[in-house]
Specification:
Radius of gyration: 16 Å
Largest sheet: 6 strands, mixed
Strand order of the largest sheet: 6-5-4-1-7-8
CATH class: Alpha Beta
CATH topology: Creatine Amidinohydrolase, Chain A, domain 1
Shape: globular
Structural class: alpha/beta
Number of helices: 7
CATH architecture: 3-Layer(aba) Sandwich
CATH superfamily: Creatinase/prolidase N-terminal domain
Length: 172
Amino acid sequence: MSIFAERRQKLMAHLPGGVAVFASAPVVIRNNDVEHEYRQDSDFYYLTGFAEPDAVLVLTTAHPDHRCVLFVRPRDPEREVWDGARAGVDGAVGDFGADAAFPIAELAQRLPDYLQNHERLLYRIGRDRVFDEKMLAALDATRARVRRAISWPMEMIDPAAITVILNWKGMP
């Protein structure tokens, strides 16, 4: 088991009946068409080792097969010439230990499936307003399934509440 898989497992042990969603750091434009050097979100990297932008990590305690899901940019040889190599969906599973991986374009469609029937949501709201809108839309889509006897997370917890505790216990 990789160090990242251990970290994910320890985090989820502190979130019974929960689902956790971590978004990668956005790319920041410096001026016109020049980007700042990319730096991954610390929590996202700590749990995945994945250093690419436009990615989302979903950790779930309820899904029977997918405990760790990554949404990533697909491989694109033409863009990789300019932006560098991408792991893609296959690399997310093979190299980064995800149980399942999907193109980031499928996030809006698939995220409600992973949010449903959980009591708690571990998510840091306010860090990335653009992604907050996507997260709230996914929660709304999950709530719309109530007539099918599907529940949604009623409690939102900031990841810092758990990661601070884990770091105090000497988590690597």
